[in-house]
């Protein structure tokens, strides 16, 4: 729509386009809202405060925030399944950094317990997003994929930034500016001492050496708790310096604490639900009955206990 105000024509649609683009560049959460239809065209976006909470901590990494002289670049996030954790970390954040934040040179190593499912799925989704008409119309001058290195699990852009999807036990020879660990254990592997120990050992001994810059590159772990001695448990027990974002399905004031950025779970009533718009009480209770107390304690409450 073109309006003539007497001082020259004004393209209202272009103005709205520019405003929306500027809002998406300023806020990861807003970028998620605007781009959701590209990733999930058949699902209406449902927002929860936890999305803003997680995004603010990822934005601090993007902005190069320092705390007591050290870069803010080690984050552990424990949230229940179904709360968009994989999409936020592995799809939207890298896409936001490349285009809206004009950091296309960044390199991402994205690992999960199996490359065939989580890693491959999110690699496809990110590629779908950054090659979409919606994204290219806004940031196509910043981000384009190299035609000769555009594969299912590995794609490179024209600024030599890349995204590689792999399993947590197959990280040899890969380095990145962001190492993103999403559910390093499956339910089965966490229950197996041999498999769990292998995944934990890889995390402790291989992940720190997979960074482009040992000082400023980031490691972010996002997962549901599956065992007392899973990767999260080791990070906490060994006091590895990670900022711990712990958001249980039901609010537990005894375990709530502010993060290193000074942000705290906004809930105040014990048992208050994390994401009632998507997981109302009847749904949570139904799922808890099906899961049983052991799985619910770990996956929902982020407080794994010995089975039985």
At a glance:
The chain is of the alpha/beta class. It has helices at residues 12-26, 28-39, 49-62, 85-98, 115-130, 133-139, 187-191, 193-205, 231-237, 281-300; strands at residues 2-4, 9-11, 66-67, 70-71, 74-78, 107-112, 145-150, 154-157, 162-167, 178-182, 218-223, 243-246. The protein has an 8-stranded mixed β-sheet with strand order 7-8-9-6-10-11-5-12, with helices on both faces. It has a two-stranded antiparallel sheet with strand order 1-2. A two-stranded antiparallel ribbon has the order 3-4.
Description of the structure:
With 308 residues, this protein is an alpha/beta fold. It is built from ten helices and twelve strands. It has helices at residues 12-26, 28-39, 49-62, 85-98, 115-130, 133-139, 187-191, 193-205, 231-237, 281-300; strands spanning 2-4, 9-11, 66-67, 70-71, 74-78, 107-112, 145-150, 154-157, 162-167, 178-182, 218-223, 243-246. The strands form three sheets. It has an eight-stranded mixed beta sheet, with helices on both faces. A hairpin with a 4-residue loop joins strand 1 (2-4) and strand 2 (9-11). Helix 1 packs across helix 2 (28-39), helix 2 (28-39) crosses helix 4 and helix 3 (49-62) crosses helix 4 (85-98). The radius of gyration is 20 Å and the shape is globular. The mean pLDDT is 91.
Helix-strand layout with pairing:
Layout lengths: L1 E3 L4 E3 H15 L1 H12 L9 H14 L3 E2 L2 E2 L2 E5 L6 H14 L8 E6 L2 H16 L2 H7 L5 E6 L3 E4 L4 E6 L10 E5 L4 H5 L1 H13 L12 E6 L7 H7 L5 E4 L34 H20 L8
Parallel strand pairs: 5-11, 5-12, 6-9, 6-10, 10-11
Antiparallel strand pairs: 1-2, 3-4, 7-8, 8-9
Helix pairs in contact: 1-2, 2-4, 3-4, 4-5
